[in-house]
Sequence to fold (243 residues):
Amino acid sequence: MVKTIHLHQNDSELYHDPVSYRQLVGRLLYLTNTRPDITFAMKQFTQFMAVPTVLHHKTMSRVLRYIKGTLGQGLLYPPTSIIQIKGFSDSDWATCPDTRKSISGYSMFLGDSLVSWKSKKQNTVSRSSSEVEYRALAIASCEIQWLTYLLNDFQVLYKHTALLYCDNNSARHIAANAVFHERTKHVEIDCHVIRERLNNKLLHLLPISTSAHVADILTKPLEPTPFNHNLSKLGVINIHFPT
Fold:
């Protein structure tokens, strides 16, 4: 997607055939099961199913051209890997022009293999970037706990504690600090599940630079260079291109 274009409800005139728009979105949603590179774009398009505009359809046509040029692209799962859960949590603050809600995303790896990812608009408006990142951490920690339970149900033995990476220093400090101060007064109680997971030693919360954050691709449109760089880190390759 073009980085400078921000889709919203009244960005252009209404599209003349909304039924075909909905049908196309429905078909493309199946691709997100194997193509994390279009997950953010599809999250954007599904918001305007009721009243799509010409710009919405034009932007989706760009995604279709991208898919046509990368038909051999998909996830590669290496045969050998360490059994350890690694998660990357990220968010983009107040980017929805219509509601000013934020977008959060996470990507979960089992060793070097991407097994779970998500891009979603948060349910409430956040008053600070720290609150946004903290909510994203809470969602990601719940996914880590679910994957841990799943491994236990499959009787898969693992010895390494899960790792969760976040590029926001304030959110990491709030999660590790039990002192209640003014930065957390407006954060809902259910967001503090991340601290509970930390205290129970379910995961370790680690810093990461924004440039190395692989979940960036799930929260915002990127320029081609960082976009392709993120794809390679997610384990997405194109079998039609030479290695």
Q: What stands out?
A: Strands lie at 73-75, 85-92, 103-110, 113-121, 162-166, 203-207, 236-238. The mean pLDDT is 89. The longest strand covers residues 113-121. Residues 85-217 form a domain with the Nucleotidyltransferase; domain 5 fold (CATH 3.30.420.10).
